[in-house]
Amino acid sequence: MYFKRIEMHGFKSFAEPVTIEFHRGITCVVGPNGSGKSNISDAIRWVLGEQSPKMLRGGKMEEVIFSGTANRKSRGMAEVTLVIDNEEGILPIDYNEVAITRRMFRSGESEYSINNNQCRLRDIRELIMDTGIGVDGYSLIGQGKISDIVSNKTESRREIFEEAAGIVMYRTKKAESERKLSSTSANLERVNDIIGEIE
Ligand code: ATP
């Protein structure tokens, strides 16, 4: 599995549609200061569901939309598509190529899709869970992450190992089942109360 390409339109400094092709192995992005290199990794983080503007080096999420320059109008929407090679079937979906898209409008509305089928953010999270490419995964390593790993925060370190070991999905499903179980028990108690009253 590897990132094949990223398509950006209206995202940060990428006012016009831009496609960057990646290949297997290492891709190096070089350019002058302020030319938009980090905006590419921000776009990857964003399309994979990042919800914190701070993680995208901004104050508000709306700041990911191209804000205009002296000779170019601002845009009303940011759109990023990340195309992932899934020949090895690591992503649990029956496609050899998976395109994850996120759109955001100035109204604050966000849309997500997988291979052009509109979906929820939760579907994207589940798709990439335990593959290491999620926003909490270990494939996007920012400066903060390195200090997390070397710091004495055992919880942070544990999260990274759990993601690598592929158990986050099971932990999430277990928590979900426990929530359902406790709400079912509460319902059952209520039903028993009603039965008691009737009898
Ligand atoms: P450095 O080498 O200094 O780290 P860089 O190549 O990583 O720089 P980025 O930080 O990716 O550069 O890009 C910064 C540029 O993106 C700035 O010129 C900034 O004005 C522009 N930019 C960021 N957000 C927006 C936006 N919403 N609209 C327009 N331009 C934006």
Relevant terms:
single chain; 199 residues; alpha+beta; Rossmann fold; 3 domains; six-stranded antiparallel sheet; 5 helices; 35% helix; binds adenosine-5'-triphosphate
What ligands can be seen in this structure? adenosine-5'-triphosphate
CATH class of the largest domain: Alpha Beta
Assigned CATH architecture of the largest domain: 3-Layer(aba) Sandwich
Distance between the termini: 62 Å
**Helix/strand order:** EEHEEEEHHHH
Q: What's the arrangement of strands in the largest beta sheet?
A: 2-1-3-4-5-6
Tally of helical runs: 5
Named CATH topology of the largest domain: Rossmann fold
How many E-type strands?
A: 6
Report the structural category.
Answer: alpha+beta
Can you put this structure into words, describing what you see?
By secondary structure, this protein is of the alpha+beta class. The chain has helices at 37-47, 121-128, 143-150, 154-165, 168-198, and strands at residues 2-9, 18-21, 77-85, 97-105, 110-114, 117-119. Strands 2-1-3-4-5-6 form a six-stranded antiparallel β-sheet. Helices cover 35% and strands 19% of the residues. Strand 1 and strand 2 form a beta hairpin. The protein folds into three domains: 1-133, P-loop containing nucleotide triphosphate hydrolases (Rossmann fold), CATH 3.40.50; 136-166, no CATH class; 168-199. It is globular, with a radius of gyration of 21 Å. It contains five helices and six strands. Bound molecules: adenosine-5'-triphosphate. Adenosine-5'-triphosphate binds at residues 12-13, 31, 33-39, 63, 65-67. This is Chromosome partition protein Smc. ATP binds at residues 32-39. It is found in: Cytoplasm. Belongs to the SMC family. It comes from Anaerovorax odorimutans.
